[in-house]
Every structure is written in structure tokens, then in C-alpha cells.
């Protein structure tokens, strides 16, 4: 039985740990804010004071943190970084949503130490993690993925897609989040036009939701918009971050990103108006 370390037990990481414990895996946990690990310890997880200590106790090390800076600190801190504890037979998995450049830099560092690496960000939020309906988008060697696929499934995945080489899982995840951010902002704009034209927001969303032009994710966000429910599942601050990262990926590859750039400006405006901690659906507050 592989022992798994999970670095970062926020909204997603904590639920992955619970799923792994329920599947009877041994799990070591570390979090920058130590208080967050207490509920997991009562369920059987083992606490590690640093990422290094967590990695020293595990065969598979999974990180799921907020951004590049947090990932860099977790893995490469010169005193406490997880890479210092990786064994030669270890597999490191980065499940955060990060820039492609940093993902590849991290993979090269881990590979130079003899360990294997996968970028395996997840599509889904807390409800999908709890229901075992996450989707993993994986970059790296197929042989390495085969070794850990049972762990990803146990952590809450319904589907695991092998996208391609290192960094391509992350690229796909950024594309998914950008497309979601674009759709939700466009829907908020359209609802603003409709409501200011005298059509009740609930009626507008009822009609739009029955048409094939709207995705299930946008339909769900629209339902939250018209009831003014913006409890964070995918906060606006993270939407803006992911759009920024996808724009960087476009610049690095020579791809045009005019739509992502324009939509990022909207989310930046939402943050400036104090909505950064709201769910993605909160972008509607600029229009309704």
C-alpha cells in the first residue's frame, strides 16, 4: 500500500484526503495553516510540520495549493521544501492550477533528483470532490500515470485524461478555466441587457437554460446569479489568476488571447469593486 502525502488541505485538498482515508490509504498531511489539518487527524491522517517531513514519509506526494508562489514554497523552500524529502522511487504530483512554465521548471527539478513527476490538475470543485466526480487532466509519462491512477480515482476522480507530455495537463486545465470564465462573464452581460430591457432575470435565465446555446456549467452559474448567491466555490480572485496564467501560456506559444484578455479585465474590475472573494457567479454584480 502506497503512503500518500497531501500538501495543502484547503477546500479541495481536505476533501481529497477524506476520500483517500475512506479508501484506506495511509495519508500524511501538511498545510501552511496547521489548524486546518485537525479534522483530518481525527479521521486517521498523520500530521507533518513541513512539506519535507511529509515527503519523507510518503511514496506519492500530491500538492494542491493556490498559485505558483505557494507551489514554489511547498516544493523548493531551501529548508522545508518537499523535494528535500523525495525518495528516488517517489512520484510527485502537482494538482494545483499553475503556469505552464513553472510546472515544467518544477518537473525538471524533481526529475533531476531521480523522482517522477506528473502535472495533474483537477476539473471540479468541492461538490464534485465530495461526489467522486472530479476530472484529472494529466501531463507526463503514461507509465507513471498507470502507477498512480488508482490513487487519483480514490481521491475523488470519475475520469482521468492523459493529455500528453509534462505541462500539457496544466495547459488544458488553464484552457478549461478560461473557457468557463469567458462563458460566465458573457452570460452575466447578457442577463444585464435582458433585465434592463424589462425581462425579469429569473424568466431570462429560465428561457436561456432551455436552449442548446448554454453549457451546464454556465447554466449553473446563471442560477446563482439570478438568486444573488455567490458563496465561493471558484472565487473571482482565482478566476482572474487562471485567466492571467492562460494569457501567459498564449504569449509563450505565440497564440492570440484577445478574448481572455478582455474578460480578465472584467474580473479585475470585480476584484477592484470588492467582489474578489465571491464565487465566479459574482461577476454578475457588475451588470445586474
What's the structural blueprint in terms of helices and strands?
Blueprint: E1 3-7, H1 11-22, E2 26-30, H2 38-41, E3 46-47, H3 51-56, E4 60-63, H4 68-76, E5 91-94, H5 100-112, E6 116-119, E7 122-123, H6 126-131, E8 134-139, H7 142-155, E9 157-164, H8 168-196, H9 201-209, H10 216-226, H11 236-253, H12 258-272
Parallel strand pairs: 1-2, 1-4, 2-3, 4-5, 5-6, 8-9
Antiparallel strand pairs: 7-8
Helix pairs in contact: 8-10, 8-11, 8-12, 9-10, 11-12
Number of domains: 2
* Helix segment tally: 12
**On the 0-100 scale, what is the average pLDDT?**
97
The Cα radius of gyration reads 20 Å
Essential attributes:
288 residues; alpha/beta; Rossmann fold; N-(1-d-carboxylethyl)-l-norvaline Dehydrogenase, domain 2; 3-stranded mixed β-sheet; 12 helices; 14% strand
Describe the structure.
- The protein has 2 domains: 3-165, Rossmann fold; 171-286, N-(1-d-carboxylethyl)-l-norvaline Dehydrogenase, domain 2 (Orthogonal Bundle).
- It has 288 residues and is of the alpha/beta class.
- The chain is globular, with a radius of gyration of 20 Å.
- The N and C termini lie far apart (53 Å).
- The model has no long low-confidence stretch (mean pLDDT 97).
- The longest helix is centred in the middle third of the chain and has 29 residues, at 168-196.
- Helices cover 51% and strands 14% of the residues.
- It has a 6-stranded parallel β-sheet, sandwiched between helices. Strands 7-8-9 form a 3-stranded mixed β-sheet.
Amino acid at each position: 500500500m502506497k503512503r500518500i502525502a497531501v500538501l495543502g488541505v484547503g477546500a479541495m485538498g481536505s476533501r481529497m484526503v477524506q476520500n483517500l482515508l475512506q479508501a484506506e490509504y495511509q495519508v500524511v498531511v501538511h498545510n501552511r495553516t496547521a489548524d486546518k489539518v485537525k479534522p483530518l487527524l481525527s479521521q486517521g491522517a498523520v500530521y507533518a510540520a513541513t512539506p519535507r517531513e511529509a515527503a519523507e514519509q510518503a511514496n506519492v506526494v500530491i500538492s494542491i495549493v493556490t498559485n505558483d508562489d505557494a507551489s514554489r514554497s511547498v516544493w523548493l523552500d531551501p529548508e522545508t521544501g518537499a523535494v528535500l524529502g523525495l525518495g528516488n522511487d517517489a512520484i510527485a504530483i502537482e494538482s494545483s492550477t499553475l503556469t505552464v512554465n513553472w510546472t515544467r521548471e518544477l518537473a525538471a527539478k524533481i526529475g533531476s533528483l531521480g523522482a517522477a513527476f506528473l502535472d495533474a490538475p483537477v476539473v471540479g470543485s468541492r461538490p464534485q470532490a465530495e461526489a467522486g466526480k472530479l476530472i484529472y487532466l494529466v501531463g507526463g509519462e503514461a507509465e507513471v500515470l498507470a502507477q498512480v491512477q488508482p490513487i487519483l480515482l480514490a481521491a475523488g476522480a470519475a475520469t482521468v485524461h492523459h493529455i500528453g507530455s509534462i505541462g500539457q495537463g496544466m495547459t488544458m486545465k488553464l484552457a478549461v478555466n478560461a473557457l468557463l470564465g469567458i462563458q460566465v462573464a458573457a452570460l452575466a452581460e447578457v442577463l444585464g441587457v435582458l433585465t434592463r430591457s424589462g425581462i425579469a432575470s429569473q424568466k431570462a435565465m429560465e428561457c436561456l437554460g432551455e436552449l442548446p446555446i448554454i453549457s451546464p456549467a454556465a447554466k449553473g452559474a446563471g442560477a446563482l446569479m439570478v438568486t444573488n448567491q455567490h458563496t465561493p466555490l471558484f472565487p473571482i480572485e482565482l478566476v482572474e489568476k487562471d485567466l492571467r496564467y492562460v494569457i501567459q501560456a498564449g504569449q509563450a506559444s505565440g497564440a492570440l488571447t484577445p478574448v481572455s484578455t478582455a474578460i480578465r479585465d472584467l474580473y479585475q474590475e470585480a476584484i477592484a469593486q470588492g467582489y474578489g472573494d465571491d464565487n465566479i457567479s459574482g461577476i454578475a454584480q457588475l451588470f445586474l
